[in-house]
């Protein structure tokens, strides 16, 4: 009788804990977009939104600029989730009303790109305050190309390219042929890449929550491999690199591909991966995105399982996004 009662009580506690976990409100995430030199950005925003919401851990909003830019093309009309059709302009036009309420969110994902018009100064100040006070930030691919003249933004992302970035913004940072970290203060423009191709990720810090348990080396789907990135690189940790081969127009250096940056009390997860929809269909990218967003939002990684279809050392893996 006592054993039966004990078992029943344990089952009650288990069901209660599961019920509590299921009833816990999801974290709030905000994707910022609207002006990007990459033609896939409206779709990639929706991909990131779905990846996060499929975990049941996030509720995701989108803050889009009034005037949008998509590559070199005119994006005539593009409806957002609220049903409002945003009118587009041929080039990046500043939106004076673009002032999201960052205080509502645990983490912000930046999906802007090269050529984006500056945000209003009030937005910049609020953004800096949000991150420095402990808000999470995720930087995806071309988001490291924008706002090159914004000093605090450069500190948040650690390294960046294009956007008039030169030695005035900080050194090049990479690993040399001996896999030793190099901080290179030589003059030159920041940001370049060779032809798109599949390339390997090499984990450099296997103990960080974002990369812990991942294979030492795995093959990423077709993407742009950014190189010659430079910036303040303060409080920055390189978690993984990729070798930028001269055979593909690269540098013959190991370039940072997964980074974290501490900015005040805030946590920043930064990956130069994610050029196109097919790049973001990579199971490795999806896994790192979810882990990096968790870490930026909470300081921990909630789901540490390795998907059964995770890329191998010699074979990439994709989940087709419809």
> Might you state the CATH topology name?
Rossmann fold
The largest beta-sheet arranges its strands as 2-1-5-6-15-14-13-10-11
Form type: globular
**CATH superfamily, called what?**
Class I glutamine amidotransferase (GATase) domain
Decide which structural class fits the backbone.
alpha/beta
List the helices and strands and how they pair.
Elements: H1 2-23, E1 27-36, H2 41-54, E2 58-70, E3 77-79, E4 85-87, E5 107-110, H3 121-132, E6 136-140, H4 151-157, E7 172-175, E8 181-184, E9 192-193, E10 197-203, E11 217-223, E12 226-227, E13 236-244, E14 253-263, E15 266-271, H5 277-280, H6 283-298
Parallel strand pairs: 1-2, 1-5, 5-6, 6-15
Antiparallel strand pairs: 3-4, 7-8, 9-12, 10-11, 10-13, 13-14, 14-15
């Amino acid at each position: 009788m006592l054993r039966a009662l004990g078992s029943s009580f344990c089952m009650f506690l288990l069901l209660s804990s599961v019920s509590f976990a299921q009833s816990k409100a999801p974290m709030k995430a905000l994707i910022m977009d609207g002006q990007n030199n990459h033609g896939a950005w409206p779709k990639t925003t929706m991909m990131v939104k779905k990846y996060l919401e499929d975990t049941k851990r996030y509720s995701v909003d989108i803050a889009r600029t009034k005037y949008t830019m998509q590559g070199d093309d005119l994006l005539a009309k593009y409806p957002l989730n609220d049903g409002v059709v945003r009118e587009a302009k041929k080039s990046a036009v500043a939106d004076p009303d673009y002032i999201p309420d960052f205080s509502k969110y645990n983490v912000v994902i930046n999906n802007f790109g090269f050529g984006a018009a500056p945000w209003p100064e009030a937005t910049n100040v609020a953004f800096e305050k949000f991150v420095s006070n402990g808000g999470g930030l995720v930087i995806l691919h071309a988001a490291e190309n924008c706002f090159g003249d914004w000093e605090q933004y450069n500190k948040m992302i650690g390294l960046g390219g294009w956007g008039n970035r030169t030695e005035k913004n900080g050194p090049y940072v990479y690993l040399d042929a001996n896999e030793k970290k190099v901080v290179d203060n030589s003059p030159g423009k920041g940001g370049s890449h060779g032809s798109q191709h599949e390339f390997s990720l090499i984990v450099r810090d296997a103990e960080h929550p974002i990369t812990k348990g991942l294979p030492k080396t795995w093959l990423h789907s077709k993407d742009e491999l950014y190189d010659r990135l430079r910036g303040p690189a303060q409080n920055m940790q390189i978690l993984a690199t990729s070798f930028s081969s001269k055979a593909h127009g690269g540098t013959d250096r190991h370039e940072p591909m997964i980074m974290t940056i501490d900015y005040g009390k805030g946590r920043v997860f930064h990956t130069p991966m994610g050029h196109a929809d097919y790049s973001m269909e990579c199971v490795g990218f999806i896994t790192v995105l979810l882990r990096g967003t968790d870490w930026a939002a909470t300081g921990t990684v909630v789901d540490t399982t390795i998907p059964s279809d995770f890329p191998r050392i010699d074979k990439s893996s994709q989940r087709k996004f419809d």
